[in-house]
Mitochondrial import inner membrane translocase subunit TIM50 (Panicum virgatum), 251 residues
Amino acid sequence: MQKRKTDQVTVSDLPFMDLVTSTKAAGNGGSSEKKDGEEASKVPDMVSPIRVQRKKLLILDLNGLLADINQDDRNSHLSHGKVRGKLVFKRPYCDDFLRFCISNFELGIWSSRLKANTDAVVDILMKDLKQHLLFCWDSSKCTATGHYTVENKNKPLVLKELNKLWNKEEPDLPRQQGGPHTAIFPYSYSYKNDKDDSLGPGGDLRLYLENLATADDVQRYVEDHPFGQLQITERNPNWKLYAQILDGRVP
């Protein structure tokens, strides 16, 4: 989703990752065996970090990226928790992926869910790893549009305006001013895909982030290596709706 600049706004119902160069130096980490996504009883050592001069800020969404959150009670026995009547199915290799992200990036979470629900999902997915988050944003940081999503006419369409990162809403965030090509939109995860390995060692998303962690220029790398869903443009069949949002019009 665009709003004046292509990098400044994302539609909340797309799995979302924002990538920004940080000014903090990379830290040291321990080692870890490959995991299958099941939670360990203790927080394991971090994955050995990739050698980089400075870490980049990585912002992750929850639903569709780290988990599939739905109301499919027929398979509740496969879920890892429940929040407000919705089941949380953790994505395979989620634990290992989060350790990788914490070791190699400055990590934040941004969800369009209410704070109580966001915190509950983070507790299920991250447990003690959440102490390593720089921040955890919820719907209070999103912008209401007055419209509803194309996929669900009962779900409000809100925006994640990335310029809030640059406006010092969180003064301790390590970041530089953003520009085009600082976000990617992976395809949404479904728990029914039992062969999904995107987050695991050798998985497509994991490999993408490994390469990006060492890239000298984030924007150039993202521009030269498109990943996942493309940006919404005038060619999108629902462009009329998005054009209204661009113009600031409400129903």
In short: The domain at 9-37+45-246 is CATH 3.40.50.1000 (Rossmann fold). Residues 1-14, 21-44 have pLDDT under 50 and may be disordered. Residues 115-126 form the longest helix (12 residues). The chain is about 20% helix and 20% strand.
